[in-house]
Amino acid sequence: MPREEGSVLGTTSDQITETVLKAVSGTPNRRTRQIVEALIRHAHEFCREVNLQPEEWLYAAEFLKRCGDISDASRHEFILLSDVLGITMVVDTLAADVPDGALEPSVLGPFYRAGAPVEPNGADIARGEDSDGEPTHVFGRVLDPHGDPVGGAELDVWGTNANGLYENVDPDQPDYNLRGRFYTDEQGRFELWTVKPVSYPIPVDGPVGDLLAATGRSNMRPGHLHVIASADGYRTIVTELYTDDDEYLDRDAVFGVKGSLVVRYEWITDEQKVIVSPRKRPYWELQRNLVLTPGRRSIQFTAGREEQAR
Ligand SMILES: [Fe+2]
Q: For residue 11, how far is its CA from the centre of ligand 1 (angstroms)?
């Protein structure tokens, strides 16, 4: 039986786009409608631009399924995919409205773990043996844009050991090794001991690894210390501090490096200092103040995580 003119099967790809947009035009929530409509328009246009073939589309669907299959409590392949495509940094940059000199955001990464132990200032979060890495002293103050101290600010800090592994993907490390939460005193001061960050590869045994290989890219990240800085009345900043002499600083697999986040560690050998340090051997030292921007504290990294900590 001949099709009626104008039926769906007889339409052009542009007309299909119009039909689909019409189907979602009644979305009650304005923001949901804006996002879904843009997704449809851009996705359809993407297919047209590259003349996407059915087998390529099936490959993409299978790729996304594999991202889900390989993800678990300690691995989030979709975040990793977003990171290596630079989407995370685009979103963070759009959301970042911090004045000059204030702490800028960077990627959260897939290895964040909520509910790290709360530690007193000066505590050492290298909970394993000396093999955790080179001892490192990190201290400074959390300040507001006028230079006044922010007391009671929380710094959630985490990093890898010397092998470039986070404890939640390394059964040889103690629970919550190299993770801890610290609170600033009334002068805005914080102080902790950890190990010096090392560059490490992001996992390539999943679909994201296939993508990096297909595009001829490195899977290395420059050494960095993860920090989530939060305080009542200030914007929560999820960020990383990057080591200045790292060979991968200018080719981070996830595009997280910003100039203001590059820091320098000093090598301390002074015997007077060494003798009172936790490991009693020469160590690295990073002094760094963190300036927070007035705004709303994120719910994501406060209420929810206390829940998970229990
Ligand atoms: Fe990391």
A: 48
